[in-house]
């Protein structure tokens, strides 16, 4: 977290988030490729049962395609993750929490501190492995929308890949108390 001035605090998500995204891409790509390999085995088995001969070179092509898809998905994941980390910035000012994000489409979310109802620190299994947290910000609007539509509260804002969430939550709570 950086401090631009006494009144505004600017922070970025932790670069370890890149590892988080790459791990996710590896698992997803592995399962997609596993399905592709199983399909190739089924096709080859069907051809052996029907004609008595295997499809020539199907394994060569199947493994080549699988490795190509796997490599492209990992490279694309690294590129997107680096761009996401670089472009994800949060700023805590005296009256607002401003979150700027986006790889292809830039987005700026301004959450007035006076509207914040709940701050939740969340950590899933991968977060625990990487020792990071996600901070979820629930507002009057997000809670109202939940009751109106599904009953599920979706946070209006979130800050992923935070190493020290307690300091951010503490700063937010102090600034919210100063508004009252």
TrEMBL record:
<feature type="transmembrane region" description="Helical">
    <location>
        <begin position="58"/>
        <end position="80"/>
    </location>
</feature>
<keyword id="KW-1133">Transmembrane helix</keyword>
<feature type="transmembrane region" description="Helical">
    <location>
        <begin position="25"/>
        <end position="46"/>
    </location>
</feature>
<dbReference type="InterPro" id="IPR005182">
    <property type="entry name" value="YdbS-like_PH"/>
</dbReference>
<keyword id="KW-0812">Transmembrane</keyword>
<protein>
    <submittedName>
        <fullName>PH domain-containing protein</fullName>
    </submittedName>
</protein>
<dbReference type="Pfam" id="PF03703">
    <property type="entry name" value="bPH_2"/>
</dbReference>
<feature type="domain" description="YdbS-like PH">
    <location>
        <begin position="86"/>
        <end position="144"/>
    </location>
</feature>
<keyword id="KW-0472">Membrane</keyword>
């Amino acid at each position: 977290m950086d401090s631009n001035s006494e009144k505004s605090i600017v922070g970025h998500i932790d670069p370890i988030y890149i590892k988080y995204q790459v791990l996710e891409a590896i698992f997803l790509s592995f399962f997609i490729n596993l399905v592709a390999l199983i399909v190739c085995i089924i096709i080859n088995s069907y051809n052996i049962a029907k004609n008595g001969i295997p499809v020539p070179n199907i394994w060569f092509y199947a493994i080549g395609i699988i490795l190509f898809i796997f490599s492209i998905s990992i490279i694309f994941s690294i590129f997107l993750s680096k761009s996401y980390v670089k472009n994800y910035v949060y700023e805590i000012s005296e009256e607002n929490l401003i979150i700027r994000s986006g790889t292809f489409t830039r987005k700026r979310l301004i959450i007035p501190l006076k509207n914040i109802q709940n701050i939740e620190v969340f950590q899933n299994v991968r977060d625990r492995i990487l020792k990071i947290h996600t901070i979820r910000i629930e507002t009057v609007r997000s809670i109202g929308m939940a009751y109106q539509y599904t009953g599920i509260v979706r946070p209006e804002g979130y800050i992923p890949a935070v190493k020290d969430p307690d300091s951010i939550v503490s700063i937010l709570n102090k600034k919210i108390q100063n508004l009252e």
